Amino acid sequence: MNTSFYIARRYLFSKKSTNVINIISAISVIGVAVATMALVVTLSVFNGFHDMVASFFTAFDPQLKITPTQGKTAPADDPILTEIRQLPQVDVATETVEDNALAIYEGQQEMVIIKGVDDNFAELTHITEILYGDGQFDLQAANLQYGVPGIRLAQQMNLTAHWDDYLKIYAPKREGQLDMTDPSGGFEEDSLLSPGVVFAVKQGKYDRNYILTSIGFARGLFDQQGMVSALELRLKSGSNIDAVKKEMRRIAGDKYEVKDRFEQQADTFRIMKVEKFIAYIFLTFILIVACFNIIGSLSMLIIDKKDDVVTLRNLGANDRLISRIFLFEGRMISVIGAIIGILIGLLLCWLQQRFGLVSLGQSSGSFVVEAYPVSVHPTDIILIFLTVVAVGFASVWLPVRNFVQK
């Protein structure tokens, strides 16, 4: 067994001549453990929110989305889009046309995003799983056009899941000049009926702004016949999405962008990553403060073991060996605190996942979830352990070197 490690272990666990040293050593371990536990729990909560938001987007966003790099639309019969659509891994392909418009219903008006989709949109996404009402996801029947609004937009415009009157939709004409004597002549006007349902992605971006309708209605309203804003794709089960995305990007060149679900919501997930990183930095500073207890514990121990140090020197121990003894002492405090903190943190995460101990609010149904979501990622646990060990090791190096050389 390594001599310095053996002596350090005896020093750490043996009874000291002054009882306060044992107390300070225990406080050092507890301080490191609490800071470590806080890191585990906090980062796991951020992971939980990240995974929860990703699951909401999954119900509405396609696996892959192809959009033009220049302009809002591209020809639907573009050979590049045709080649991408015909890849063997593609299971469902949906053309969409999307743009801003003005919606008016019984005096209530809102700026909205009209998204026209193909009839197979329900096969592409999980839209049918987030519908509310007594109707069905029907976007057209004969010459009738239906619109499915987000639930918050419906509330803002006093729409029920099944409204009775026509929902008027206005969009600026693409050609011609606006006649100020007749402003209404500068807009395309059309109307939508209710299929008896609204959707709830539980994300304001969609629930507050979007109306889903048929692609024929959107093309007519925005004068985009034969054009698409995006080609949305779902791959066959078992397909390697990264490999398929790489192949599609090769085909698309610099004319089209190919984005997966996370890239489609890059801003949202970037903000969440920044928030998680800031939380990690702040808690690391708290960990550094907790490690000052280790310095105090080692200082007391060195004073307590002065006679032992003299004896070791007389037996031939050099400064390097003595330094290693007290370095191992501080490092063991860091490692023990890290292990205890990680285990307690994992236990708390499991309890929160299982029983929802910490709720988000007093009223049931006020939030998307009742309790704070938690998701433990192994990479975070490894990062936390390495951080605690690195901070602990760094905190003991300078004082041990200075004390031993005196």
Secondary-structure element string: HHEEHEEHEEEEHEEEHEHEEHEHHHHH
User: Which secondary-structure class do the elements indicate?
Assistant: alpha+beta
Number of strands: 15
Overall geometry comes to elongated
Mean pLDDT: 86
Main sheet overview: 9 strands, mixed
**Number of helices in the DSSP assignment:** 13
Helical amount = 40-55%
Rg from Cα: 32 Å
| Low-pLDDT residue intervals, each spanning 5 or more residues | none
Give the termini distance in whole angstroms: 28 Å
Percentage beta strand = 15-25%
Q: How would you describe the overall organization of this protein?
A:
The protein is α+β, with helices and mostly antiparallel strands and 406 residues long. It contains 13 helices and 15 strands. It has helices at residues 3-13, 19-58, 79-85, 121-124, 151-156, 204-207, 215-222, 241-252, 261-264, 266-304, 306-314, 319-355, 378-405, and strands at residues 64-68, 74-75, 90-105, 108-117, 131-133, 140-141, 144-145, 148-149, 167-172, 187-192, 197-199, 210-214, 227-228, 230-235, 256-260. Strands 1, 3, 4, 8, 9, 10, 12, 14 and 15 form a nine-stranded mixed beta sheet that branches. A two-stranded antiparallel ribbon has the order 2-13. The longest helix is centred in the first third of the chain and has 40 residues, at 19-58. The model has no long low-confidence stretch (mean pLDDT 86).
Task: Set down the secondary structure blueprint.
Elements: H1 3-13, H2 19-58, E1 64-68, E2 74-75, H3 79-85, E3 90-105, E4 108-117, H4 121-124, E5 131-133, E6 140-141, E7 144-145, E8 148-149, H5 151-156, E9 167-172, E10 187-192, E11 197-199, H6 204-207, E12 210-214, H7 215-222, E13 227-228, E14 230-235, H8 241-252, E15 256-260, H9 261-264, H10 266-304, H11 306-314, H12 319-355, H13 378-405
Parallel strand pairs: 4-12
Antiparallel strand pairs: 1-14, 1-15, 2-13, 3-4, 3-9, 3-14, 5-11, 6-7, 8-12, 9-10
